[in-house]
């Protein structure tokens, strides 16, 4: 028997070693967005081709980004969380 409020909890994809939580702050066009990462860095992230037409990314979405090794101010988006999943991450203290 589940406790109240516990029945909606889902196992969410958590960041790998080279990934960081981020929030989309601005749409730049040309499959690029500006993100504010959990490590405090503003990065330009690109939306990979496999996500372009299937997953719509908007401002204030919570995403996982993979910062580039050779250029720290850029990153690739690897995952987008639904609004309910982002709320769950906030409740559990993973993001602000």
Automatic annotation (TrEMBL):
Ranges of residues in domain S1-like: 8-82
A matching Pfam family: eIF-1a
Keyword Transit peptide: no
Keyword Transferase: no
Keyword annotations: Initiation factor, Protein biosynthesis
PROSITE patterns documented for this protein: IF1A, S1_IF1_TYPE
GO molecular function, one term: translation initiation factor activity
Sequence similarity: Belongs to the eIF-1A family.
NCBIfam families membership: eIF-1A, PRK04012.1-1, PRK04012.1-2, PRK04012.1-3, PRK04012.1-5
Functional description taken from the UniProt entry: Seems to be required for maximal rate of protein biosynthesis. Enhances ribosome dissociation into subunits and stabilizes the binding of the initiator Met-tRNA(I) to 40 S ribosomal subunits.
The protein's name in its UniProt record: Translation initiation factor 1A
Organism of provenance: Salinigranum rubrum
Gene behind the chain: eif1A
């Amino acid at each position: 028997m589940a406790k109240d409020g516990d029945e909606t909890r889902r196992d969410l994809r958590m960041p790998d070693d080279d990934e960081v939580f981020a929030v989309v702050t601005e749409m730049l066009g040309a499959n690029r967005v500006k993100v504010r990462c959990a490590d405090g860095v503003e990065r330009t992230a690109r939306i990979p081709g496999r996500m372009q037409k299937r997953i719509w990314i908007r401002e204030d979405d919570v995403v996982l980004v993979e910062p580039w090794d050779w250029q720290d101010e850029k990153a690739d988006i690897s995952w987008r969380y639904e609004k309910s999943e982002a709320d769950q991450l906030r409740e559990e203290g993973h993001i602000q």
